[in-house]
Amino acid sequence: MLAYVAKRLALAVGTVLSAVVIVFLLVHASDTTPGAVRAGAGATAEQVAAENEALGWNRPLWVQFTDYVGQLVQGDLGTSLVDGRDIAADMADRLPVTASIALFATLLSGLVGVFLGVTAAVRGGRLGRLITTGSGVALSLPAFWVGILFVYLLSLQLGWFPATGYTEFSSDPLGWATSIAIPVLTLAVGGAAIIARTAAAGMREALTQEHIRTLRAMGTPRWRIRYVHALRYASVPVVSTLGIQFIALFGGSVIIENLFALPGLGQASQVAASSSDFPALVGVVVVATVVVVVTNLLLDLVVAALDPKVRTP
Amino acid sequence: MSVLPLDAADEVATEPVPPARRRRGLPGFLRRPGGVFGAAWLTFVIVASLTASLWRPFEPGQQDTANRLALPSAEHWLGTDPLGRDLLSRIFSAGSLPLLSSALMLVVAFGIGLPLALIAAERGRRVERVISRVTEVFLALPATILLLALIGVIGNRLYPVMAVLGVLISAAVYRVLLGVAQSVRQRLYVDAARVNGLGSLRVNLVHVLPSMATVVAVQAAQLFGIGLLIVAGLAFLGFGPGEPEPSWGFMIQDASGYIYTSPWLMVPTGLVLALTVVAANELADALAGKAAAARGTGRRRRPLRRAVAAAAVPAGAPADPAAVLEVRDLTVSVDDGPDLVTGVSFSLRKGEVLGLVGESGCGKTMTARSLMGLLPDGVSVTGGSIRWRGRELAGLSEAEIDRVRGREIAMISQEPMVALDPMFSIATQLVGPIRRFRGVGRSEAKRIAAELLRNVGIVDAQRVLKSYPHQLSGGMAQRVCIALALTGEPELLVADEPTTALDVTVQAEILSLLRALVRDTGLSVVIVSHDLGVVADICDSVAVMYAGEVVEAGTAAAVLDEPAHPYTMALLGANPHVPEGEPVPERLASIAGTVPPPGSWPTGCRFATRCRFVQEKCTVPFPVLPAHGEGSVLCTRVDELSREHAVWEPEHAGDEIASPLAPPAPVAGVSS
Asked: The organism sits in which domain of life (chain A) (predicted)?
């Protein structure tokens, strides 16, 4: 068990390091230099060179890299080339926005998806086919298009939620909830569809297992067979997919935050990409990779808790 | 959307298809409506987009200022945008970029993932580990944000960006294809090809790749849809071709600004994009054949045709007043299909053990499972009666038979290792039924569970209670299964090949445990087996089954010592177990051919095609004859055979080679 944990941790650290190396090399392969970005358009070559010198851009690559990693482990992600703000502090402000949207969307996907998938597998027939086809369509819909549809329906037509913008939880909890409602619903459409498919496939497989026949031969009540035994069997793939969903929704937040003007990580990465704000870019990649890696580690723990074959020797 | 539901692909069938099994004519996926729609729409979009410059009614940048934000009309079929540009022309002019760049992503992803999977599957464990570790890192990278970082560095160039995405996705492709490649490589025909000296490249090209074709096609279709969504998502964020060039993502972004005044604007573009992605996914599903699997899961049982009538009429043979179980003329059939079991009758007294014997596919398991109403979906009892202690079980509803299951009749199965729920401890699995059947509290139930385990010969009951099924050995698991079956204190135990999956020494232990239970508790047992040794060991009476019917029945001693039916003789002649004190035969007898499948049984004797004693009269129907006192035999020549002292002899050495050439011998007439 200890060796397993050590291996997972090593892989996690390796993943984060690879991400840092990749973006670091990318930035250095670019035609644009950070000095040019900081000096702004219309700066002379001398001004750009001076900025680059000040930023340490002309030092050997490995020196810059070890420097960056050294700062990274202390939680220092540098400052923005565009407005000089502290990247780490900025990320700390933005992470909760993205994380809460991705988390609620994952939870909602899980609830709706498991309900639909189990219904499809257990009831079968016309309803099952309807759910299967419907989830096939739902997972193919572009999130930004679904988002606009929801804005049209829930905001413009029904007036339930604001169309865009973000309210701080600390200033107005109810306003916060309504401000993330449409983004969460939008992300949950595709998520629920994928979970529904996984849950349906898992339940169908579970119900054909030999041990289910043993339970039937024991006269076990049908609800117990379905919702205790078969669902428990199907829970491992469902939970794994939920973890992957969280990661995917986290990435999907780039578009959602753009659409709904939410101050999250996705928005930061879009702004950084369009303005070539290199430290901000590297910062976003590092934070996103850490989130992915931590989610994967947690996922492993949850799966181990669910599946006795993983948990016990 | 930048969601990468790659793992949804895992649930799609990743079973390799051996080349030989592929059908000719129309490919399978085109027989499903989803596949037809997917293929048709994708073809339409691709052709229409690539040829847009030839047929489009307007140039994509041409402004019709009089008709801004127009609804569909004869002139503008899909309406116009805020600058009065024709939406139809713009949508299809924009199509080729996402289609081609997604195709590029696919080429890169498979160009890397497929060879890596083949190499990893071929070169063995160490190489596979290295490649797998690297791909795991790739899979854990946040793809969308990395793509944005790439755009931030190299600028707004879609093809290189999608190529890099292809590199990232190749890790997922590798992971799926590796599993397939490994399982294909384990197939015998691949081994055979290697033994025959085919080079590694040729083995891959000739044998492995064709088997992976379906999985590759499924993956490609799904990833194509994902690629389209990503290209559109990037354009939506402004990382696409800039104005005035049209792009799907930016057109939707544009539409979002006019949603208050012209909601129609978002419909055509969004619909074309969504339909294209739906088409790719539907095509993937159809290729994987999943649409078929989703159907027919609803349970629908054909009502019992003849059971009630048959039960009302006095059965042919006088009912045994001492019998607890009386099966008469039982027929089991596939719904709207052939019969699997016909006219099976037997009875069982308290404390008696009955063996149902025969080759695989002779209907013995179906017979046993029908006793508890546990037939597979689509199979049901369609005639005859199953009287259990005076009550008719055939045709009972699920709820009614549930009250019999476990309490009166219990079952143990062939595969003890998978018969227990892998997710729960043994204690949980025993305590539940004990509480339900005996109405006791949790701690009392725990005590009873430990006692039951000790009764089935488990010494370390406390440790086993805490264990999970995967921690038990096969013999131990079967003991637990027997303990589980005893929780409801049943009077009849149906044991379906209870020892087949176990080691020989464990087999003997389990049989003696069953014997002890019968002796101590008066349990009646129906034991299904293909092993005559098991039958001789434990059974009081035996019913030999062949092709869905009982061909010989009687006490175990009578049937085994003086078999009357040629099939029983053949089974005994083929039995490798030799009673102690008798000489080991030099050769074992064999039975040519296989059991005919249901639906193709011959009229008259169903064993006729394989019987050495077959004659003309065997092919016309004939009645069951009494034999072995209270038993029966289903052979029209039984008296002649008994007079001739017929024996099913082992073949002489060389017979196997000579027989196809030699003219048919007078007695062994039909051998084909």
From this structure: Bacteria
